[in-house]
Write a structure and sequence with these properties.
Length: 284
């Protein structure tokens, strides 16, 4: 099996390459960033013969959103996806499956959201996710089974929120963000990687919410981090401080969605880490 992956050096991509080589004995084709933005014919030559394309590339969202930064965030997701579709359209032998990343940030922070929900958030990130998924679904029109993964917060000791917050919690100065009531939909990176193997094996298509079944909020995450490390966590970063530091991007930390991973449960996916406490104990 030949699998082409963009964003292969990122938090998820680096784990995924190792997993696919071990689990599927796959030949991995890493798609360089410059090819994603480049000529579609050159990109098609790189993708030729791939059975599966996995699109993980995307610029970091946790920085102050200037107009230029917003363009980078959007283009790294939407325009690269459009270019992948253009490249695949040029191929005589098209891949069997296309797996594109999205985020639970597409949903409103109100109510609960299964994969069928169409209550979307129309802030900047919500609009980016909507455009991103619309671009990805063009692949379906090329008769390529298209999967969209709406990711929650990925928990890994090699990056993301655990790596960034761990030093503060170890010093006893960890704390909740804002009210702490915002939902914290999470998934352990090992379970996330397993889902990729699951959908490749089952040859599925459509949308999946990639979160663990347990519903927790930011305050509970703070409590569990402190408990796991046996350290206090009395600090609190008020919302207005985060808004001063990050501006509009503070919504990433201050908003949260209640997400139901109904499709994974229905199709029999078996999580290794069902709870936040279990995931943190395994990581820390």
């Amino acid at each position: 099996m030949k699998i082409a992956i963009s964003g292969s050096n990122g938090l998820v991509g680096s784990h995924l390459c190792d997993f696919l080589q071990t689990e599927f004995r796959a030949e991995i084709v890493k798609i360089p960033r410059e090819r994603l933005y480049g000529d579609a014919k050159s990109l098609a030559n790189l993708l030729d013969g791939a059975n599966v394309i996995i699109h993980l590339s995307g610029a970091s969202i946790l920085s102050r959103w200037t107009n230029n930064r917003k363009k980078i965030i959007r283009d790294s997701r939407v325009e690269t996806t459009k270019n992948l579709c253009k490249a695949v359209a040029l191929l005589k032998n098209k891949p069997e499956q296309f797996i594109c990343t999205s985020a639970v940030g597409i949903y409103s922070s109100l109510n609960e959201h299964s994969e069928e929900s169409e209550e979307y958030f129309h802030d900047f990130l919500g609009k980016v996710c909507i455009e991103w998924e619309q671009a990805a679904m063009q692949m379906q029109k090329l008769d390529v089974a298209t999967v969209i993964f709406r990711l929650g917060v990925v928990l890994s000791k090699h990056g993301g929120i655990i790596q960034k917050s761990l030093p503060f919690f170890k010093l006893g100065i960890g704390g909740r963000l804002g009210s702490g009531k915002q939902q914290f939909p999470f998934i352990h990176v090992d379970d996330l990687i397993k889902v990729y193997g699951f959908v490749i094996n089952e040859k599925t298509k459509g949308i999946y919410n990639l979160v663990a079944p347990e519903r927790v909020n930011n305050a509970y995450f703070t409590k569990m981090m402190a408990k796991t490390l046996n350290r206090p966590a009395f600090c609190h970063i008020p919302s207005f401080i985060l808004r001063l530091l990050l501006g509009e991007a503070s919504t990433v930390l201050l908003n949260g969605q209640t997400i139901l991973p109904n499709r994974l449960k229905k199709e029999g996916f078996e999580y290794k880490y069902l709870t936040l406490e279990g995931a943190l104990c395994a990581l820390i």
